[in-house]
Amino acid sequence: MVDLKSQTPCAGRVPLRVGPLSLTEDTPEHMTAIAPYIGQDQALSDALKSAHGMAAPGTGRMTGKSGARALWFGQRMILLIGPEPEAGLAEFAALSDQSDGWAVLRLEGAGARDVLARLTPLDLRPAQFRRGHTARSDCAHMAASITRLGDEAYQIMVFRSMAATLVHEVKIAMGRVVAQK
Amino acid sequence: MRLTCPVCGERDRREFTYSGAAVALERPGAEAMPEAWDDYLHNRDNPAGVTRDLWYHEQGCAAWIVVTRNTITHEVLGATLASEAARAGGGR
Ligand SMILES: [Zn+2]
User: Which domain of life is it from (chain B) (predicted)?
Assistant: First the structure.
């Protein structure tokens, strides 16, 4: 038996630092797409709460805390990030394992919003896109999930196959924002 | 150009993919006459004025939506989920 070594999507490309900005990778143990069956939204939310401690997020919102989060992930879709999903959830929703499918990056530091604004058409004004808000949008022409984690901290997710491109694009934008200061 | 996705709110046009006239939601019944299928599959109006089109929020929530807009003024008049429009019988 060959002992294969697993690699994270952004291995060898991050962490990056440009001035006050940093780009790091988050590597959650599990990521699971949860698509609630019609009419089962409340039952799913209750099950999620008792199994993992957070209710289902509303549209464009995130629930839970670092280590176990539920992210709104599109129309009638939730992404459970961190814990292995309790089997009972399958009664109320279709579950599909996405653990190795997405690159999860964290962009943080003064000017992080300006960096992101160069890459996505989302309205990122702090009063519009608040902490805990999330959106599916375009990031450097890639289908992305963008979440505001803190004052100047954002999570950016793209398909794993696009990880290198995303890091490349964010790195360039970080350099340009810092050069302008 | 910005479109208001019923799920996500107002978003940039580049997040959406255009499909065509919302007539695609009005599929004839199996027993319909060939003329009805001809209209459904091939014949499209090219209205100067209000038109209803299907758009896909591809770089967004992945919803199909029906957008009503005016081809003369470029005004976007509204948008509904295609699933709801279809359930309401084509949504007209
Ligand atoms: Zn949408």
Answer: Bacteria
Boundaries of CATH 3.30.70 in chain A? 30-97
Q: pLDDT for A83-130, tens place per residue?
A: 999 999 999 999 999 999 999 999 999 999 999 999 999 999 999 999
Q: Is the pLDDT of residue A150 over 50?
A: yes
Chain segment A56-65, per-residue pLDDT in tens: 999 999 999 9
**Do A178 and A19 touch, CB atoms closer than 8 A?**
yes
Mean local confidence (pLDDT), A70-85: 97
Query: Hey, of B2, B5, B11, which one would you mutate to test binding to chain A, going by the most A CBs within 10 A of its CB?
Result: B11
User: Which amino acid, one-letter code, is at B11?
Assistant: R
Whether the CB of B14 is below 8 Å from some CB of chain A: the reply is yes
The CATH classification of domain A30-97, taken from the options 3.40.50, 3.30.70, 3.30.1050, 1.10.10 = 3.30.70
Spell out the domains of chain B, with CATH numbers in brackets.
2-87 (3.30.2270.10)
Positive/negative CA dihedral, A161, A166, A171, A172: positive
CB contact under 8 A, A138 and B7: no
Instruction: Please tell me the CATH superfamily of domain A16-27+100-180, with its number.
Output: Probable tRNA modification gtpase trme; domain 1 (3.30.1360.120)
Contact yes or no for A138 and B59 at CB 8 A: yes
> Per the CB < 8 Å rule, is A136 touching B11?
no
A59 CB within 8 Å of a chain B CB: yes
Contacts of A137 in chain B (CB under 8 A): 11, 15, 59-60
